[in-house]
Amino acid sequence: MACAAYSIRGHLKLAVGPGPYALANNHLCGGLKPSVSYPISQSWSTLTSNAGRRAASRSHLTVGNSERWRSSLKASPEDGTIVAEGKITVLVIGGGGREHALCFALNRSPSCEAVLCAPGNVGIAQSGDAVCISDLDISSTDAVISFCHKRGVGMVVVGPEGPLVAGLANDLVKAGIPTFGPSSEAAALEGSKDFMKKLCYKYNIPTAQYRTFTDPAEAKQYVQDQGAPIVVKADGLAAGKGVIVAMTLDEALEAIDSMLVEESFGSAGSRIIIEEYLEGEEASFFALVDGEYALPLESAQDHKRVGDGDVGPNTGGMGAYSPAPVVTEELTSTIMQSIIIPTVKGMAAEGCKFVGVLYAGLMIEKKSGLPKLIEYNVRFGDPECQVLMMRLESDLAQVLLSACKGELGKVSLTWSPEIAMVVVMASEGYPGSYKKGTIIKNIDKAGQVSPAVKIFHAGTALDGDGNLVAVGGRVLGITAKGKDIEEARSRAYNAVDVIDWPEGFFRRDIGWRALKQEQSVNY
């Protein structure tokens, strides 16, 4: 099934009136003046028919892989730019489970000559999904640029949020190297929750009501006035741990002290967001963006809480599955029109043209059935990326390069009709303190449980004796595909049960919402 990209052309609708959340145009993106020159006029012509609306559905958002495209790419060994026909070398920045999944998909891309990953990890290297460059200092833009020129890298894909917020994409693009990932100014959508909230207010993007605080006394008074449940968030990057869903006032007050007084999250928690508690079902929604067009990816749903039954503290994600039944065709269209497109238009109007992937964390409200934006990430989610890359059948290198070149309007995507599910295995104690260096056995055996199983490494290394050991909180992503959620789930957990790692743990109920819905339909 074909899916056209959504154009952002259209008149911006601004929130009017004074208030603490209003933001002047020239200050939204670090004082940059608007620099977007293309006309803003909304175009929904590709989605006006029933066929068009079906094309925007969550099922098979199909993107083409033409031979013309396939033969039009080549990296110049001198400067890494695309100059002629041929294949390209892609450098992936990062070394976690998300980057392993990206390497896996890029390695299957016909237009990809080679996949390099810096720093990568032992699982990526041993799987053959990429050549790992462990000694490349990815914190040095000069080192990365020099490496790209020497190796003839035709595109850089930046995985983690840290290098994006630090400005790696800015420097690579300035050096003439096609880079998939937003500028540091645009990456503030994730780097500052206050920034994201102000954008939502200005451009009428539905989100939870909120206030921003730096003073603990004022924050506590606000919480006492509002009552619980309520949500307390660190403004900056906190590795997925800076969100406290406080079900009681005591929990909220403790979170305020932790962030603003005890400085548990360092500078990331020196400013906090306190927002209303939304009740409903969470979903992850992804869209590729080239500054003018937004192309929705398949839906996914993750499990943030550490324990079975969605209890315990939030984590970076303990598992995920795709597609997510909660994200229907109608809801996909609503999300694009009310959240994604206004965001891309707003960023462009503010002089922060966004190029990369927008990852919207959403709450589908129980009382209205409509989506509200919880947060934005400016990179692929982890572990959602694992299930998306397992299902993607298009040439990922072509798709991402077209985003870098502003050509997503020409692109469509092809997805496997199967369900994919990932179960995260983590070190005991995560998301708190945990022991490093514990030995993991039977990984190869687990990967042979089924051809539909793929094990993505996030936090592994080899010790002095050549043993595979855990060096992170979230360590492995056991991923499987199946004709339905039951088959995918069975294959994933069968592989998990083969792995011998006494110091690891995992949730036993990943996919329970989708499984419950499927059983209800079958009944």
Offer a few descriptive terms.
523 residues; alpha+beta; globular; 23% strand; five-stranded antiparallel sheet
Compact summary:
With 523 residues, the chain is of the alpha+beta class.
Write down how many β-strands occur, each being a DSSP E stretch of 2 or more residues.
25
- Number of helices in the DSSP assignment: 17
Overall pLDDT, averaged?
A: 85
Distance between the termini: 29 Å
Q: Which percent range describes the beta-strand content?
A: 15-25%
Main beta sheet = 6 strands, antiparallel
Describe this structure in words.
It is a single chain. This protein has 523 residues and is an alpha+beta fold. It is 30% helix and 23% strand. It contains 17 helices and 25 strands. Strands 13, 16, 19, 21, 24 and 25 form a six-stranded antiparallel β-sheet that branches. A five-stranded antiparallel β-sheet has the order 1-12-11-17-18. It has a five-stranded parallel β-sheet with strand order 4-3-2-5-6, with helices on both faces. The protein is globular and about 60 Å long.
Topology, please?
Layout: E1 6-7, H1 50-55, H2 67-70, E2 88-94, H3 97-107, E3 112-119, H4 122-127, E4 131-132, H5 141-151, E5 153-158, H6 161-166, H7 168-174, E6 179-180, H8 188-191, H9 193-202, E7 210-213, H10 216-226, E8 230-234, E9 243-246, H11 249-261, E10 272-276, E11 280-289, E12 293-296, E13 301-302, E14 305-307, E15 311-314, E16 319-322, H12 329-349, E17 356-365, E18 371-377, H13 384-391, H14 396-404, E19 419-427, E20 438-439, H15 443-447, E21 453-457, E22 460-462, E23 468-470, E24 474-482, H16 485-498, E25 504-505, H17 512-522
Parallel strand pairs: 2-3, 2-5, 3-4, 5-6
Antiparallel strand pairs: 1-12, 7-10, 8-9, 8-10, 11-12, 11-17, 13-16, 14-15, 16-19, 17-18, 19-24, 19-25, 20-23, 21-24, 22-23
